[in-house]
């Protein structure tokens, strides 16, 4: 007899019980693997795209700040025409300038704070320039805060949208260090 699930457990022979248990276990394992992989993909998607600490989120936030600032739009052109992109490639199509090519570095300092450095290009109908972003995540905070957000356009003075001192970000001034010993 073939086991298609119509027979109760008590009607099955020993071999059929082993076959059904094996098949059910395999099906359950496939479902568990699918759930774990779906959870992994959703977690990766959240941490890389939707999380407030992701590079993508911070990039979009910085671009919107550039587009909203009247000094930047006066220099670059209408905010609707401003494009932001990473490092250029050999391809001349602007749609092939992915966000993955944005120069981003994350480092920890001696006080345990994370620093995010990001550089990307902006291009408007009037000019093009480079945006410099330096953000700090204090030890006791869960999100990054701007230390520097500036736009450089060749032939024009730097436009600083945000500049904050280290102490204003909740950090301590660096301790005096002599002979490898921190003196406070």
TrEMBL record:
InterPro entries: Tim21, Tim21_IMS_sf. Keywords: Membrane, Mitochondrion, Mitochondrion inner membrane, Protein transport, Transit peptide, Translocation, Transmembrane, Transmembrane helix, Transport. GO terms for cellular component: TIM23 mitochondrial import inner membrane translocase complex. GO terms for biological process: protein import into mitochondrial matrix. The chain crosses the membrane at residues 26-46. It comes from the Eukaryota. It is a single-pass membrane protein. The keyword Transport applies. It is found in: Mitochondrion inner membrane. Essential component of the TIM23 complex, a complex that mediates the translocation of transit peptide-containing proteins across the mitochondrial inner membrane. Required to keep the TOM and the TIM23 complexes in close contact. At some point, it is released from the TOM23 complex to allow protein translocation into the mitochondrial matrix. Component of the TIM23 complex. Belongs to the TIM21 family. This is Mitochondrial import inner membrane translocase subunit Tim21.
């Amino acid at each position: 007899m073939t086991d298609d699930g119509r027979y109760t457990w008590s009607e099955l022979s020993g071999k059929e019980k082993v076959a059904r248990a094996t098949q059910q276990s395999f099906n359950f394992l496939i479902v568990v693997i699918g759930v774990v992989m779906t959870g992994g993909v959703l977690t990766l998607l959240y941490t890389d795209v939707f999380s407030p600490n992701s590079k993508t989120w911070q990039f979009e936030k910085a671009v919107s700040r550039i587009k909203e600032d009247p000094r930047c739009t006066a220099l670059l052109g209408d905010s609707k025409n401003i494009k932001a992109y990473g490092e250029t490639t050999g391809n001349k199509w602007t749609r092939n300038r992915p966000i993955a090519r944005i120069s981003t570095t994350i480092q920890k300092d001696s006080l345990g704070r994370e620093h995010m450095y990001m550089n990307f290009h902006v291009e408007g109908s009037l000019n093009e320039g480079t945006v410099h972003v330096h953000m700090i995540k204090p030890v006791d905070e869960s999100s990054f805060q701007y230390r520097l957000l500036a736009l450089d356009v060749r032939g024009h003075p730097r436009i600083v949208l945000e500049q904050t001192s280290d102490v204003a970000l909740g950090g301590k001034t660096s301790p005096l260090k002599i002979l490898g010993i921190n003196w406070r």
